[in-house]
Amino acid sequence: MKNNENIENNIEINDENVENNVISDDNTEDTSASTDNSAEEKTTELTVEEQLEAAKKEVEQYKDKYLRAVAEFDNYRKRTLKEKAELLLNGSEKAVCAFLPILDDFERAIADKTEDVNAIKEGVQIIFNKFNKTLESLGVRKIETEGKDFDVDFHEAVAMVPGMGDDKKGKVIDCVQTGYQLNDKVIRHAKVAVGQ
Q1: What pLDDT, in 10s, does the model give residues 157-192?
Q2: Which of 3, 41, 162, 189 allows an S-S link to 196, with CB 3.0 to 4.6 Å?
């Protein structure tokens, strides 16, 4: 019987050992699972931190691009304003240079002491023709009015002439002041008398 009791005690001790081993195995699994979970959390945290760093770098890149674009636009605006100011100040340079030879001709005509009226008249006519050619080279054209229908786009009526007959009604009768176009833009309307 004593053997039986010893055997039973041994069995109970073995059962307790087995249970302790099973519990310790469960604890070990829990510990290893806990270790795995903490490793995953650290990996996730590192990933989040890495993502944050990547996002910060991307923000810096966009900020740099934005600042460069703003600076470039500001430089463009300043350059454009400067060019516009220079154009306003020096835009007439081409026209002035074109008229300088005509001014020279006038100076020579004034300096001439001739008494011949026909020579003076011929010299003035030559200068006038040169002046007209210079205007045409700059794109300035005379608005034709003789025998034309009255057109508000090109003419300004300063007088209405009644009793001219039906064939002259609405037509330009006389040009009081010549009008001019610069390329296709009217820069001065022709002042005309219109038949009524």
Answers
A1: 898 888 777 777 888 888 889 999 998 899 999 999
A2: 162
What is the helix (H) or strand (E) element at residue 159, kind and residue range?
strand 155-161
Model pTM score? 0.54
Rounded to an integer, what distance in angstroms lies between the CA atom of residue 64 and that of residue 59? 8
Cβ atoms within 10 Å of 165's Cβ, excluding its own: 7
Cβ count near 155 (within 10 Å)? 21
Both tokens assigned to 182: 């610069």
Residue 144: CB partners within 8 Å, gap ≥ 6? none
Q: Calculate the alpha carbon distances from 72 to 8, 63, 83, 84, 193 in Å.
A: 94, 14, 16, 18, 57
Dihedral sign from CA coordinates of 95, 97, 101, 103? positive
Output the six-digit token pair for 141. 């054209």
